[in-house]
Amino acid sequence: MDTFVSLYEGFAVALTWQNLLLALLGCFLGTMMGALPGLGPANGVAILIPLAFTFGLSAIAALILLTSVYYGAMYGGRISSILLNIPGDEPAMMTCLDGYPMAQAGRAGEALALSGVASFVGAFFATWGLVFLAPLLVQIALLFGPGEYFVLYTLAFATLGGIAATNQAKSAFAAALGIGIAMIGVDTQTGVQRFTFGEVHLYDGIDFLIAIVGLFALSEVFVFLEHRGGREEGKDEAKMKIGRVTPSWKVLRYCTPAMIRSTVLGFLAGVLPGAGASLGSFLAYSVEKQVSDPRSETFGKGDPRGVAAPEAGNNAASGGALVPMLALGVPGSGTTAVLLAVLLTLNIQPGPLLFQNNPDVVWGLIAALFIANFMLLALNIPMVGIFTRVLLVPTHILMPIVAMIAFIGIYSITGSTFELTMMVLFGALGWVLRKLDVPLVPIILGILLGNEMEVNLRRAMTISNGEWTTLFDSWLAIVLWTIAIVGFVLPIFLGKRVKKRMKEAEEEGPLSD
Amino acid sequence: MMSDRVLGGVGLALAVFYAWAATIIPEPFSSDAIGPDGFPMIIAAILGVSSIYFVLKPDPEPQWPSLNRLAEIGFALLVMFAYAQVLPVLGFVFATVIITAYLTWRLGARPLTAIFNGVGTSVGLFVLFELIFGLSLADGPLGF
């Protein structure tokens, strides 16, 4: 019952005119960003964080705006998958498989409407899952001491690559790089300078927003420069004719079992460490194919269930991914890492204490997610035509604008040339690392969590008088270590196979989730 | 093959440098069990070990862009650096017209379109962020 009371109070927080307006704006911007190839949930939210911060929005208002963008981007990714056969973001790539054939058969409007409803079903029920599961997880998290927290962070890094990781050494390298960057600046425990080499700008450390915007948003500009012209083909007015955009009851009923199965699968994939939305949609599609069409007669040729399943799956996963992020403060994917950055920018430390000390923030946010869902359904069915127009904006107009918003954002929080230069450097670094297949998400997570991780380790060691065995002496710690080790080792054996199957389905999206 | 070996070499150098930089952290007045340099040493070790792995077992070579594409990216990088430097001197509007026009042109637009997009983006963002939302963007000699 407590849960419903809290949720009710959450709605009281979220239902103000300003917050509703921000949610609507966020949903609109998010859908647009999701629809545009090259701008996904991670970099879309990333370039907006500094702006939300400098506009002086309250914590809850900024959160509502940015999580609406996050949910919106998850909805929007399907639009270009269906119309152009180009996934708007990586989780939407499975939607190409049956969405594009449907569009070619003249059923684009139907596919868009169906996937809109499927997105709604996935996200809506995943948000309910969040409501019930997060408080349970908080109960467990309250048992954690500093030692367990250190192990939990280790677990997050060990499993971040996910089951589809092909080279765990590169994940480890990226995590170490990120944590290493986090160490720069004043050591909070003793007050001494570390790795600053007398450079005044480094005394406060490197702001994680600079790294995120550089690595995620600016590196995308370099990718487009590299492939100039290559991604423009196929954009023409003719393909934007979508016809009637109303889902027929018959098709909806036909796809309902697929949506239910995929929502459950996607939610679980989102909650578990190292999975995330891409794997959620992949799992949902593969399982649905096994269940409904074992002899592959209709899947891949425009089966509506092949559109409903991955969309319900990826939106359910993005809701599920919020569970560990809010309850433990440990994100499991790139996009939730960016949302963690949002919280940290607003001086909110997610984790069990957040539920106790700032219940208004948690439940206001959850209420906002429900509201955003209904807004997105309304935006995405009748108004989908507006978003398909956006796809006609050529990349060479769009990418420079994205770059400039990134510059404005960082300049507005720092006002200094030094930080802008650093952001450009991160952009170039991001491009090189993406070329070398070094994942960027562990770097971001390292910069975000590195200091907390060290603080917890040192606290645990101080309590135990320097005995390292303290990291293994509770059953919770041992369970966490086991998951961490299995999560790190398993992809070494399975990663190549899973990756191959995902690749067979579709070539890689613009940014990993 | 070669690219990963180079990455490994650079990573190894970085790990050694990082470990050295950790050793010169000044001794604090009061310290805890592992001190300010303990955790960075662990990080340096992970950097080093994974770098050695890249050298020993490199992944297949990625597809690097041709030399002129590489130069393209290099020039864009230079323009962005220059933008960061001249922003406080020229002011937001002028600096942004130049960089946006450059990027638009290099991403494949005709020069005239590029100039239009440069002016449009710059003025549009200025109106949106400075005049409507009240952020303070960099001021030039003319006050904008």
TrEMBL record, chain A:
Residues 20-445 form the DUF112 domain. The chain crosses the membrane at residues 20-39, 45-71, 111-137, 149-165, 172-188, 208-225, 263-285, 325-348, 360-379, 391-411, 423-449, 475-494. Pfam families: TctA. Keywords: Membrane, Transmembrane, Transmembrane helix. This is Tripartite tricarboxylate transporter TctA. It comes from Roseivivax halodurans JCM 10272.
